[in-house]
Design goal:
single chain, mainly alpha, 7 helices, disordered C terminus
Length: 152
């Protein structure tokens, strides 16, 4: 969870009961703990992206808006080579991002995505799409934002 600086100032300025202040402090400590965990994970994963087979793919994926270093690295490691998919349709089939279809005679009805395919990658791409469509109004710049530029 990334709370913006503005939000942290606002929540600190609230006059509240002591119980509320304790809850806010607990959430802030949990957030700081998670941020430290993410920094440690990023440190441990950095050597993977320097591997020759991943470096180029990670740097290319980081060029897309709202695909940051960790997402790009996960995509690169999970997919391996994008060349194994001859068409975009083949890649979408692999991810399970094609709608299900029911047809009888002349009637064709499309349904939701079937959920088959690689769920982890589908989740990553859907989250990146949501970030692209609905950017935060005032976001805190992530400490990992500089890492992406390192791979470009």
């Amino acid at each position: 969870m990334h709370w913006t600086t503005r939000y942290l100032r606002w929540i600190s300025a609230l006059s509240s009961f002591p119980e509320d202040a304790a809850a806010v402090q607990t959430y802030r400590q949990a957030m700081e703990f998670r941020e430290k965990q993410m920094a440690l994970i990023m440190t441990e994963l950095s050597p993977l992206a320097e591997h020759a087979s991943c470096c180029e793919t990670v740097s290319r994926l980081c060029c897309f808006k709202d695909i940051e270093y960790l997402t790009a690295l996960a995509l690169a490691l999970e997919i391996g080579s994008f060349r194994r998919f001859p068409t975009a349709q083949g890649f979408m089939d692999y991810l399970g991002l094609v709608p299900s279809a029911h047809s009888t005679g002349t009637t064709r009805r499309e349904g939701p995505i079937p959920g088959a395919g690689n769920g982890r990658l589908r989740h990553l791409l859907i989250q990146a799409a949501w970030h692209y469509v609905r950017p935060p109004a005032s976001a805190k710049i992530s400490s990992n934002a500089g890492r992406a530029s390192r791979w470009r």
